[in-house]
Amino acid sequence: MADHGTNHGTHHRTHGQINRLSGGQIDRNKPLSFTFDGKTFQGYHGDTLASALLANGVRLMGRSFKYHRPRGPLTAGSEEPNAIVALRSGAYQEPNTRATTAELFDGLEATSQNRWPSLAFDAMAINDRFSNFLTAGFYYKTFMWPAAFWEKIYEPIIRKAAGLGALTGSADPDVYDKGFRHCDLLVVGAGPSGLMAARTAAEAGFEVIIADEDFRFGGRLNSEHEFIGDQAGADWAASQVAHLGTFSNVRVMSRTTVIGTFDHGIYGAVERVTDHLRTSAEGQPRQILWRIYAKHTVLCAGATERPIAFNNNDRPGVMLAGAMRSYANRWGVSAARDAVIFTSNDDGHRTAADLHRQGVAIAAVVDTRADAPSAHEYAVIAGTTVTDTRGRLGLNAVQVTDATGHSRWLKAGSLGVSGGWNPNVHLTSHQGARPVWNDALNAFVPSPSLPPHMSVAGAAAGMLSTHGALHSGVDAACKALEIDPRTLPALPKADDRPVTQSAFWCVQGSERAWLDQQNDVTVKDVKLSHQEGFRAVEHLKRYTTLGMATDQGKTSNMGGLAVMAELTGQPIADVGTTMFRPPYTPTAIGVLAGRSRGKDFHPVRLTPSHYWAKERGAVFVEVGNWLRAQWFPIEGETHWRQSVDREVLATRSSVGVCDCTTLGKIDVQGTDAAVFLNKVYCNGFAKLAVGRTRYGLMLREDGIAMDDGTAARLAEDHFVVTTTTANAGKVYQHMEFVRQCLCPDLDVQLISTTESWAQYAIAGPNARALLQKVVDAEFDISNDAFPFMACGAITVCGGLRARLFRISFSGELAFELAVPARYGDAMMRRLMDEGEEFNVTPYGTEALGVMRIEKGHAAGNELNGTTTAQNLGLGRMVSKAKDSIGSKLSERVGLNTEDGLRLVGLRPLNPKDKITAGGHVMSAEGPVNAAHDQGYVTSAAYSPTLGNMIGLAFIKSGSERIGDRMRLVSPLTKTSVEVEVVSPHFVDPEGERQRA
Amino acid sequence: MIINHPLLGPRDSAEFTYLGDASLLNRPDPDTATPKDWHDYAYLRDNPAGLHRELWFHEGGDRSWLVVTRNTVTHEITKVELARDVARGLASDVAGMGTKRSGG
Amino acid sequence: MRYSGFKVIKEALTGHKGWRPAWRDPEPQSHYDIVIIGGGGHGLATAHYLAKIFGQKRIAVLEKGWIGGGNVGRNTTIIRSNYLLDGNEPFYEFSLKLWEGLEQDLNYNAMVSQRGIMNLIHSDAQRDAYIRRGNAMILNGADAEYMDADQIRKEYPFLNFDDARFPIKGGLAQRRGGTVRHDAVAWGYARSADSHGVDILQNCEVTGFRIENGKCLGVETSRGFIGAGRVGCAVAGSSGRLMSKAGMRLPIESHVLQAFVSEGLKPILPGVITFGAGHFYVSQSDKGGLVFGGDIDGYNSYAQRGNLPVVEDVCEGGMALMPMIGRARLLRMWGGIMDMSMDGSPIIDRTHIDGLYFNGGWCYGGFKATPASGYAFAHLLARDIPHPTATAYRFDRFETGHMIDEKGMGNQPNLH
C-alpha cells in the first residue's frame, strides 16, 4: 500500500485524513493546520503530531541514526525511538522532538531530520547497503593508518554523519523558571492506579501532587476499550480528574514529567507550560523545573510494551500493538486500513479486536503460541511467527512462517507487534537499586529495596490488570499515609482477567532484526558482541550502542539483554540489567538552568557608591559577584591607562578616594575576642591596645597563607577584622569553624558586617585635610592624636556614627572611613564636594592595584593558596610564642627550604620593556626551560610614579638576589626582557608618607 | 539532600557548605603533638563506605557548624548535632583543646 | 589477531566468522609475579606496559566486576596536559605523548581526537594565572596558545558575547588536547595486555591482603587466594575501601562527580571548552552528544549518583556560556566516585608494606593520565624506582610539605 492512497475518509472534514477513524478523544470541532517538511496537513485538537500525520496517511517520519533506514512511529508515547523531528523554526527550533508526544497546535511546523536531500530520498541510506561492513564496533578496528589520517580524514567523515537534529547556533529565546513544592504524597503517573492513589490520599485530607507527562490524564485508560463500573475507561478517568480538582489539597500537574528521584524524598519534575501553544504570552516560561519535596511517593508510571525482533521489523507501519490501540482508540487513527498483529501473549488480541471494531481489516493475528485463543472475526494463526517484511518507505507485506518452516506473505500496511509489557521501574532505581526478575511476568519488576518512602502501584509494580491497578493504587496510598482501608468505598468493577506474558524476544534465525531502532543495533550486532567477548550487559551496551539513543533504551534494552542471555545460556536475571539514570525522559538544558543565564547567571553585588560612580561615567569590572569601579575616565581620555595614571598621580600628590566596601568585615566581640584572634592570626593580637589596628596574616591549618587584613581594636572586647574581597566568605567560615569547633568555650561572637558599612579609602597628602572637613570637631585626627594604625568610633557630618581607621594600602597618608551603608552614597558625594578644593580624585580598582604594587603589598595574586608567610617575606610574623592555626604545619621542611621562593620586585633594564604578569624568571644566561625556572611574576603594572613597568615576583632565594640581572620570559605571549631584581617596595620604602 | 538542623528543622543541603570528616574537631594538642600527629590530623581520613560523621556549615542560614552522621553509600542521615556541642563534649575529654576553660 | 581495514572488509565478506574475543577469560592461577588490582584504565594500562615495555611475565589484572566499569567508563573523555606545577606538567605531557601514539601501540582505534581544549579567561587575575600556566606548559615542552577575545569569538561564535555576566576576556588553548573514546581505552589496553599474556580476571573481587612480617604475599579474592610477588593497587574511587583492608588510612576522600550527555546533535562544537567563571566544561562526541560536567557534589560519597543542585549548577554554567544549548536535551546523567586527594594530585608510590604498591588519588583528572599512570606504575612495579615524570607523587609529600596543589586549596579535598 502506497503512502498516498485514495481518500477513505468517512467525514467531509477529514480533508485528506485518509486514515482517520471514528471516535477518539480528539475535538473534531477544532481542526488544526500544520506542516511537515513544508507540506500542509490538517489534524484536530487533542492530536499529537504523530497521530495527525498517521491520520493523513504519512507513515514515514524519520531516518535512523546509522543506516538511515526509513522510519515511522513505533510507539505512541515518550519511549519513541523513530518518529523524531525538529519542531518549530528559527531560534525556536527544537531538535530531536518526539512526534508521538508533541501536541498538535495550529500552525505547528515540523521538519524531518538526519536525511539529505529529502526524507523520501536520503543519499546516506547507502550506509544500509554497506551494513555488513559497518557492524558494531567496526571503527575500533580500523582508521588507524596512517596515524595523521584519523583527525584529517576519517573522523571528519564520521562526525559529519553524527547526530540527528541540529542546534541553530542562536541563543534560546525562551524563558524558563524554577519552583519548589511540598506534599505529603507525590503520585507519579495518572493512570488508574495513580488516580486512585491520589483520590484516596486527597479524601483523607493529605496534601497531594499528582503529575503525569501526558496532556491528558488517564494513562492506558485513554487507549483501551474497556469499562470501569459502567463508564468507559477514559470517561471514568476524566471524572476522577474532575473530582480531584474539587480538593484544595490536591495539585494536578499535567504535562509534567517527574525526571528523577533524588535523596531524601526530593524529586525533579519538568512542567511543559507552553510547548503545546504556538506562542507564549510575554514572560510566560516555556517550562518549569519543580523541585518537589515529598514525604511519600507512589510510583504509578505504568509499563512500556516490548517489541519482538524479526528481520526488517523497523519499516514505517510496524508498530507496537499497544500503540496501535492507542492510535485507534484515543485518536481515531490507524497507520493503514489493514493490519497484521504479531503477538506472544493475549494483549495482541486486544489490538486486533479494537482495530476490527474500528473498521480496520485484520489480515491475521500471528501468535507465537500453539495454544493461541481463536477469534470469529479474523484469522488467528497459532504457533507461527513473522519472519520478514517488505516495503521500501513503508510496510506493504508481512512474511509469516509456521513451525514447519512454511512461509507466505500477507499484504498489510501496518503490523502491530506485542511481546508483553515491561513495568516502568526507572524512578525506583535512580538511587542504585536494581530491578528484580519476575518469572511469572517474564519481566523486571521494582527492587524490594525502594528509595525511602516510595512505593509502587499498578503496572509499574507488575499489576497489569485494570482492577489490579485500581486496587494497588488505593493500597499504596493507605500504607504510605496510614489510612484505614476499611473506611474507603468499594472499588468500581474493572477488568480483572489474569495477565500472563511469555518470554518471546526474538524470532529464530533473525539477523537484521532491530533491537535498538534509533541506533540501528540488530540481533546480528549482539551476536558479534558476544563473539568478541563483550558479554557483560555494560559491555554489550557500550560496544553496540544499544540503548544509548534518545529513547534511552526504553523499548530496546530488554530485547538486547534477552538475546545475549540466550547466547550465553544464562537466565536473563543472571545477565542483569543496566542502571536506569535520570532523567526519565530527555530534558531541555534550558529548564535545568532556569533564569540563571545572561546577566542573571550570578547575583550582582553593588557597592554603596555604585550609582554615584555610574553618574561619573565609571568603567566597572566584575570582582567575584561584586561590580566595582575600575577607573573613572574624564573628558579627553581615550585609553584606560590615561585615566589610571592620572588617578594614581593625583592621589599621590593630593588626595584620592576609593570605595573599599567590598573588603570583608567581621565584627568580633566578647571577653575572649583577643584570645580568639590570637588563635586565628599567626601573629600576636593579645596585646593590641584599644584604639589601635594591626596587620594580621591568617594561615590555613596546613601552614599556607590564607588571607591577610587588619584587625582594629575598638574596645577591650570588640575588634573589627577585614579580609580581602575574594576571601570574605571563606575567612568568615573559617573563623566560625575555629570558634565553634576548636574553641567552643571561648566567650566570643562573630558577625559579618561587610554589607552593613560603606567604607572609603581616603589617601594622599591631603587626606587629613579633607577628612577634617567631615569629621565632627570633637574628634582630633591629628597625627599625634590619631597616628598611623589608629582606629576609633567617631561621628561625621554632624552626628552620623562612623568608624575611622588610619591604615594605608596605597602607602600614602591614608584613612579608611566607614559609615552605615545607607549613608554610603551621600558620604561619597560629600567627600567629593568637600574635596573640590584639593582636586579630590576618585580612583578605581586599577589605580588601587597600581599603588599597592608600587608599595609591594601582597594581594590575591600573591596569596594564591600555595604561598607561605616565608614566601611573602613575612616569615617572622609567624609567632613561635603561641599556638595559632597553621603554625605547626608551616614548619615542615618542604615549606622552609634554603632556595624557597621570596617576594621581590622586578624592573625592566630597558624602561620601555614590558613586565608580563605570569611570565617566568630565568637566570640572565643559560637555558630557558622548566628545569632552569627561577620563579614567576605575580603582578605587574605601569607605575606612573616611576615611569616604567614594575612587577612583583616570587623568585628562588629572591631576597638574596636583589640587584641581580635576570631574564623574564613569556613564551606564551612571545616576550623576553632583561630585568633587575629589586625590593618589592618601589615607592617610599621607609613608609614615611603613611606616617605623616 | 535534607539536613534536619537541630535548631531550625529540615533544611535543603544546598544551604550548607561541606568541610569533611568530623575528626577535624580533634585538633592535636599543640603542646604535646608530634609532627606525625599533625600530619595525620590534617591529611589522613578513614573515608568509610558507610556511616560518616562530617562537618557542614549552615552558610545560607544561621552559620552553625553541624556534625552530620550520614551513610556515604545510601546518603541516609541518621543524626545531626551542633558541632559546638560535640566539641564541648570532646573538650571535656581531651586536655588542652586550646581553650582556657577546657575541662571546666 | 591484528585489526585493520583490510581485516574488517575480509570479515564482512566472509560472514564475520573470524572475529575472536578481544581478551581471554582465563581461570586464575595460584601465583603471579605481579598482580594488579583494578581492571580500569589505569590497571589495564599498567599491565600492558609491564608486559610490552618492561618485559614482565606472569601478570594478572583482578577486576571485581567487568573491566572498564569504573571511572574509565564514566568520564567526560578529555585529554590535555595544561598543568602548571613542575610536579605535574611533565607527567601529563608524557601522557599526552603516549595518547598520540596509542592506537598504533595498541592496534586499537580509541579515536584519540586532538580537537583542542580552550580554557576561557574572565578576569585580569585569571589572565595572569593562565599566562603563568601557559608559560609553564611551553617551558615543559608542551604546546599552549594565548587567545584574545576576538580570536575566541571567531572560533566559537556561539558563546555568549552579548550579555554575559562574566565577559570572555581571552583564553588559554592547547591544540593538542582533545577527547578519546573512553571505553575503547579500557578495551584496547585489555586486548593488548591479553595478547602479551596477561590474565584478565573479571568478577574477581579482592577481599583481603595476605601480609606477613610486613610483606604482602598475595590477595584473598572471591575466586580464592592468589599469591603474588608484587601487588599493585589501581582502584581510584575505591582506594579507601581497598587499602583499609591492608590497614592503611589514605590522604584521600571519596567524592561523587556527575557528568552529563545530551541527545545526539549535528557537529557544532569544535573542541573542548572550559568556562572559567562557572562550573562547566563541554565537548561534543563523535556520535554528536554534548558531553559536559562541572564540580563534584562536594560531600563524601560512594553512591555513584549525585543530586539536583549540582545538575542545575552545571546547566546554569552551560546556559551562561552557550545560550544556544537551551533547546538541546539532557539525555543521561551519571556519577562516578573520585579519589579526591589532599592536594588535588595523585599518588604513585610504594606503601610501607613490602611488595604492596599504590596508584590512586586521581581526583577527577584520572582519565587523561591513563597512559602515563600505567607506564609510571609499571616502571615502579618492574624496577622499584619511580618513573622520572612521577617522582613527586609520593605518599610522604604531606609530611615533608611538598604538596602539589594546582588550585591552591590546601587540605580540603572537595575544593580541588
From TrEMBL, chain A:
<protein>
    <submittedName>
        <fullName>Aminomethyltransferase</fullName>
        <ecNumber>2.1.2.10</ecNumber>
    </submittedName>
</protein>
<dbReference type="GO" id="GO:0032259">
    <property type="term" value="P:methylation"/>
</dbReference>
<dbReference type="InterPro" id="IPR006277">
    <property type="entry name" value="Sarcosine_oxidase_asu"/>
</dbReference>
<dbReference type="InterPro" id="IPR036188">
    <property type="entry name" value="FAD/NAD-bd_sf"/>
</dbReference>
<keyword id="KW-0489">Methyltransferase</keyword>
<dbReference type="Pfam" id="PF13510">
    <property type="entry name" value="Fer2_4"/>
</dbReference>
<dbReference type="Pfam" id="PF13450">
    <property type="entry name" value="NAD_binding_8"/>
</dbReference>
<keyword id="KW-0560">Oxidoreductase</keyword>
<feature type="domain" description="GCVT N-terminal">
    <location>
        <begin position="610"/>
        <end position="882"/>
    </location>
</feature>
<dbReference type="GO" id="GO:0004047">
    <property type="term" value="F:aminomethyltransferase activity"/>
</dbReference>
<dbReference type="InterPro" id="IPR027266">
    <property type="entry name" value="TrmE/GcvT-like"/>
</dbReference>
<dbReference type="InterPro" id="IPR006222">
    <property type="entry name" value="GCVT_N"/>
</dbReference>
<dbReference type="GO" id="GO:0046653">
    <property type="term" value="P:tetrahydrofolate metabolic process"/>
</dbReference>
<dbReference type="Pfam" id="PF17806">
    <property type="entry name" value="SO_alpha_A3"/>
</dbReference>
<dbReference type="GO" id="GO:0008168">
    <property type="term" value="F:methyltransferase activity"/>
</dbReference>
From TrEMBL, chain B:
<dbReference type="GO" id="GO:0046653">
    <property type="term" value="P:tetrahydrofolate metabolic process"/>
</dbReference>
<protein>
    <submittedName>
        <fullName>Sarcosine oxidase, delta subunit family</fullName>
    </submittedName>
</protein>
<dbReference type="InterPro" id="IPR038561">
    <property type="entry name" value="SoxD_sf"/>
</dbReference>
<dbReference type="Pfam" id="PF04267">
    <property type="entry name" value="SoxD"/>
</dbReference>
<dbReference type="InterPro" id="IPR006279">
    <property type="entry name" value="SoxD"/>
</dbReference>
<dbReference type="GO" id="GO:0008115">
    <property type="term" value="F:sarcosine oxidase activity"/>
</dbReference>
UniProtKB/TrEMBL annotation, chain C:
<dbReference type="InterPro" id="IPR006076">
    <property type="entry name" value="FAD-dep_OxRdtase"/>
</dbReference>
<protein>
    <submittedName>
        <fullName>Sarcosine oxidase subunit beta</fullName>
        <ecNumber>1.5.3.1</ecNumber>
    </submittedName>
</protein>
<dbReference type="GO" id="GO:0008115">
    <property type="term" value="F:sarcosine oxidase activity"/>
</dbReference>
<dbReference type="InterPro" id="IPR036188">
    <property type="entry name" value="FAD/NAD-bd_sf"/>
</dbReference>
<dbReference type="GO" id="GO:0000166">
    <property type="term" value="F:nucleotide binding"/>
</dbReference>
<dbReference type="Pfam" id="PF01266">
    <property type="entry name" value="DAO"/>
</dbReference>
<keyword id="KW-0963">Cytoplasm</keyword>
<keyword id="KW-0560">Oxidoreductase</keyword>
<keyword id="KW-0547">Nucleotide-binding</keyword>
<dbReference type="InterPro" id="IPR006278">
    <property type="entry name" value="SoxB"/>
</dbReference>
<feature type="domain" description="FAD dependent oxidoreductase">
    <location>
        <begin position="33"/>
        <end position="380"/>
    </location>
</feature>
<dbReference type="GO" id="GO:0005737">
    <property type="term" value="C:cytoplasm"/>
</dbReference>
<dbReference type="GO" id="GO:0046653">
    <property type="term" value="P:tetrahydrofolate metabolic process"/>
</dbReference>
